[in-house]
């Protein structure tokens, strides 16, 4: 993709790796509404794993092909700022602890890297700001799909591609025949209440991106070899593509 002139930015999470580290330390993982409940200790562990392990591994893999990748987190150059968020489960508000929603994106550092031909690899954590916009000194865990959508908006990206370990969005899970190849933003918005908990953050991220002006956003099966190339360079693509209502 880079050789074809596409400017690529990688945003990653690391849920499975965080789970392994928490289990190793004897700490239980808890999820509500598809999001990790993150106390202060869990936040320290997540930060260590995302920045120090997963990010470094991805940078190393990309750099097997040349000196391209630069590792960052949402803390670097204040790429992201965030405020705390909760969620609603069965009609009740749930406190998620050190979990945030991106409130601001500063693309200057990313733009500089892209201009120099680099591939930014970004860990999905962010410094917290208070109601006055001042840093609190705390760091928040950001769902990687939602962080990627926020960055796609900030960069005015042409396309957002989210890799996961399922084929795409299903209209009637677990019926695999109900896979949705393409859906409009308004159709997906109507489907949100019927989606499984794990799919809701992904669907919200896809919707957030297209609502913000990204022309198309897709959720694809990262287990397929060359899945991203198939999505970007073929007319059919793979997985589920969400398009703006005004884009045909």
Structural summary, described in words:
It is a single chain. The protein is of the alpha/beta class. It folds into 2 domains: 1-156, 3-Layer(aba) Sandwich (Carbamate kinase), CATH 3.40.1160; 158-248, 3-Layer(aba) Sandwich (Carbamate kinase), CATH 3.40.1160.10. Helices cover 32% and strands 27% of the residues. The protein has helices spanning 15-24, 40-62, 108-115, 144-155, 185-191, 200-211, 227-233; strands at residues 10-12, 31-32, 35-36, 69-73, 80-84, 87-89, 92-94, 99-105, 119-123, 125-129, 135-142, 159-164, 182-184, 216-221, 240-243. The strands form 5 sheets. It has a 4-stranded mixed beta sheet with strand order 5-8-11-10. Helix 1 (15-24) crosses helix 2 (40-62) and helix 4 (144-155) packs parallel to helix 6 (200-211). The model has no long low-confidence stretch (mean pLDDT 92).
Q: Kindly provide the name of the CATH class of the largest domain.
A: Alpha Beta
User: Which strands sit side by side, in order, in the main sheet?
Assistant: 5-8-11-10
Q: Tell me the count of domains.
A: 2
Give a count of the beta strands, DSSP E runs of length 2 or more.
Answer: 15
């Amino acid at each position: 993709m880079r050789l074809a002139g596409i400017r690529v930015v990688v945003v990653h999470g690391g849920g499975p790796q965080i789970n392994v580290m928490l289990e190793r330390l004897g700490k239980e993982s808890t999820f509500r509404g598809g999001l990790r409940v993150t106390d202060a200790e869990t936040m320290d562990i997540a930060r260590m794993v995302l920045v120090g392990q997963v990010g470094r591994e991805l940078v190393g893999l990309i750099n097997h092909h040349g000196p391209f990748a630069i590792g960052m987190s949402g803390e670097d150059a204040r790429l992201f700022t965030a405020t705390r968020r909760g969620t609603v489960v069965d009609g009740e508000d749930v406190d998620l602890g050190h979990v945030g929603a991106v409130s601001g994106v500063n693309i200057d550092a990313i733009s500089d890297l892209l201009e120099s031909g680099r591939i930014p690899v970004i860990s999905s954590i962010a410094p917290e700001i208070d109601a006055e916009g001042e840093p609190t000194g705390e760091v928040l865990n950001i769902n990687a799909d939602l962080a990627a959508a926020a960055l796609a908006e900030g960069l005015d990206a042409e396309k957002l591609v989210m890799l996961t370990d399922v084929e795409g969005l299903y209209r009637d899970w677990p019926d695999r025949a109900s896979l949705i190849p393409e859906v409009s933003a308004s159709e997906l918005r109507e489907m949100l209440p019927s989606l499984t908990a794990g799919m809701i953050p992904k669907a919200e991220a896809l919707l957030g991106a297209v609502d913000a002006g990204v022309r198309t956003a897709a959720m694809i099966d990262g287990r397929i070899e060359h899945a991203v190339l198939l999505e970007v360079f073929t007319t059919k693509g793979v997985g589920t593509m969400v398009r703006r209502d005004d884009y045909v």
